[in-house]
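Appendix B. One record, verbatim.
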Amino acid sequence: MNAFARIVFPIDFSDRCAAVAPAVRAMAKRFGSEIVVLHVIDLPPSWYGTPEAAAWATLINADKLRLQGRVALERFVEREFAGTPVTSQVEEGDPARQIADFAEEGAPALIMMPTSGHGPFRAMLLGSVTAKVLHDTRCPVWTGVHSEEISAHPVERWKRMLCALEGEPRDLNVLRWAAAFAAEQKMELRLVHAVRGATGSIGSATEPGMYAMLFEIGREHIEKLQREAGTAFEVCLLAGDPGRVVRQAATGHEADLVVMGRGVIQKPLGRLRSSAYSIIREAPCPVISV
């Protein structure tokens, strides 16, 4: 059900992509997936259908860019995937759009991408291409953390998974996906829900009645979901911002993977949009968003 026939690995030849390559190899081995290493040549719009930018054609040698991209892709694959069967693919155009379109064609795919943040700035950065792919694609997307943190959660030794539920109608599909995935991968699954509003002016000490009511609403929502999904997983309810809550729960439960939904990202001004980004940025382990 949740097996990935293909893993699409978009690369820009950065150190971040090289750091994720071992995780791509391990995921492909675990799922028996085909690896497609994809490089998108970001040519000016005049080369892919926008006449307004045609003036760039006189300044940029497109053929040279294409050749450089293909050579760099071959070298990357030789260096990072030696001995591993890989399909190399070059596309041209807007990187995020090309990645999404390519992944959605053919067999079911998982997109694997790094995030951009480094050190104290990580919480502010996700990466424009990664953000656009999360917004545009319907495929599951794996996003990684820093390379040393990825190595602390090796795919071949996955044990625990955390499923973040937001209190949205789509939570039921996310829960069912996570439950099936955990069963197939023989992973322990816990659920986490961030209780919004139970911080700041409303706390256990300042407004104990309201605080307890907010938690009870969250608990009832998760219980209803579990009844509909036919599951009975342990639930962690914490007050605070979803990003911080998921990070705290993932650290406390020593989770190797976080699964979350991102469907509301596709809607204008959808609430989950900012929550999804904060969860991905702050998670101490890789995240698969579905």
